[in-house]
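Running this now, will post back.
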Amino acid sequence: MQTVQTNPGAKPSASPRNSRLRTISGRRVAVSTAVLFIISSMFPIVAGLSRNTASFPKWWGPLDVALAFVLAIMAFVILVLAQGRVNRQAAESSYRAYRFLTHGIFAMNVVFLLFGDRIVWTQCLPGFAWRTWLLLYCLPAWFATMRATPGLSGPDGD
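Update: finished.
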C-alpha cells in the first residue's frame, strides 16, 4: 500500500468554480486583446496609405492613442494572467506562430518593393514596430491564457 505525502506548507488549490471562472475570464481577455490588436493595427495601415493625414477627423489621433494605450494595458493583463503558466504547449504554439509571422515579414518586404513609393512609411512604421514587438513578446502568455485548463495549475498543468 502506497501512502501519499502532502506538503503542509503548500497553499490549498483554488476551488474548481473559481478556477473555471478565472479561465473563462482569461480567455475573454485574450480574445478581446486579439480583437483590439486587429482594430488598433488598422490605424497605421490607413495612415500609411493616406497622403494627407491632416484631412483626418480631429478624433482620429486621440482614438488611435487611446486604443493603443488600452491595448498595452490588456497585454500586461495577459502577462499577469499567464504568470507562471506558460507551459511547453504554449511555447511550441508560439514557435509555430513565430514561423508563420516570419512569412509576414517577408511579405512586408515584397510590399515595400512593389508599393514602397505609395506608402508613407514614416506614418505607419512606428505603429507597426511597437505592435509587432508587443505581439511577439506577449504571444506565449496569450497562448497560455487561451489554453488554460480549469482546476490545474503550475507549469505542466496548464
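Residues 3-7, 150-158 have pLDDT under 50 and may be disordered. More later if anyone needs it.
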